[in-house]
Design brief:
With about 350 residues, this protein is of the alpha/beta class. About 35% of the residues lie in helices and about 15% in strands.
Length: about 350
């Protein structure tokens, strides 16, 4: 499977799980909160912190789009539309600058989801991020895919709600415009997503279909689904973060707090450690027990030097420091080169071959 460099780190088989702390819209248009989300991400050991770059008026929704159940999370009444809601949590162009500067101060990569070609232009002109993110909603926004491809930067592409055919078309659009450095994210586009809807085996389907690194953009509450995804092979986890899930905002209720983010990062490293490699054999940790607990060919009586060994003289017994039990028949009929003690494991240098004897 291919490996991809995202924000300066290798992602794919054999590399640590890349953890994206998704600040998203949970800054609530407050630079101080945004910087605290950066601090939270750096303190937890996340690999990158991600925001969302857009203009509600230009790139999101018409004023006739209804925001479903999100209105009450932001204190809006039934007259509000999706554009009103996204304007409420929009990170202004000016607010990007202090937040990106704070990322540099905390030595954690900044990158962002983009929703319009103008968003890409703004980020390229001012910050030149190493990577981009495209959300599930935009997987069929082909002009946007083309614009991101033209930057030559690597891409994280969410696949919520998409069929394999739609994913293939998006990847074709990217590759036709020169971009093949892509990490796919399996995603359930529901907020929150219920654990039983996670369908994590789709990660394997995406890996098999496209030969790309595949992770999970997780919208469930808590970190159990994310850790399960790592255990079955997800190379990347994107998880919304918040200072406090009780804060107003569309994404706050299903986002994880600082303690949960630290638990996710630590859990990812633990899962990676216990997964180990695909090699099957005696591990270094098992070598001592193997010698102690395995069996070998052992003298069941004292055998004087020069004695031809018969079956009754030998037994299979612990420890496993002598001849392997599979060599029992070979040892029978040979001659003792020296005195062999009762309960002594046999070694080849104790024996004279049948022919030599």
């Amino acid at each position: 499977m291919a490996e991809v460099t995202i924000c300066g780190k290798k992602v794919g088989d054999g590399h640590p799980t890349f953890i994206i702390a998704e600040a998203g819209s949970n800054h609530n248009r407050d630079v101080d909160i945004g910087c605290k989300l950066v601090d939270m991400s750096a303190d937890a050991g996340a690999d990158a912190v991600k925001f969302q770059t857009y203009s509600a008026e230009l790139s999101f929704s018409t004023r006739t789009t209804v925001p479903l159940h999100y209105r009450e999370r932001c204190g809006f009444d039934e007259t509000a539309n999706m554009c009103d809601l996204m304007k409420y949590v929009e990170l202004s162009r000016e607010q990007h600058f202090p937040i990106v500067e704070h990322c540099k101060k905390r030595d954690i990569p900044f990158f962002s989801s983009v929703f319009d070609m103008s968003d890409v232009d703004f980020l390229e002109e001012n910050f030149a991020p190493e990577s981009y993110k495209i959300a599930s909603y935009e997987i069929s926004h082909f002009p946007l895919l083309k614009r991101v491809a033209e930057t030559g930067k690597s891409l994280v592409l969410s696949t919520g709600m998409a069929s394999l055919g739609e994913v293939e078309k998006a990847l074709d659009t990217l590759s036709q415009n020169g971009l093949t450095e892509v990490v796919l994210l399996h995603c359930i586009s529901n907020y929150p997503a219920q654990p039983e809807d996670s369908n994590l085996r789709a990660i394997h389907t995406l890996q098999s279909a496209f030969g790309l690194p595949v992770g999970l953009s997780d919208h469930s509450t808590g970190v159990d689904v994310a850790k399960t995804a790592i255990a079955i092979g997800a190379c990347m986890i994107e998880k919304h973060i918040t200072l406090d899930p009780k804060m107003p905002g569309p994404d706050q209720p299903f986002s994880i707090d600082p303690d949960e983010l630290k638990a996710l990062v630590d859990g990812a490293r633990f899962v990676e450690t216990v997964l180990g490699s695909a090699h099957k054999g005696c591990t270094v940790a098992e070598e001592g027990m193997r010698s102690l607990a395995r069996r070998s060919v052992v003298a069941d009586v004292e055998i004087p030097a020069g004695t031809r060994i018969t079956p009754e003289m030998l037994v299979i017994r612990r420890p496993g420091t002598g001849l392997h039990p599979s060599n029992l028949d070979t040892a029978i009929g040979s001659v003792a080169r020296r005195d062999i003690l009762f309960n002594e494991p046999l070694q080849w240098d104790m024996l004279i071959d049948r022919e030599d004897g």
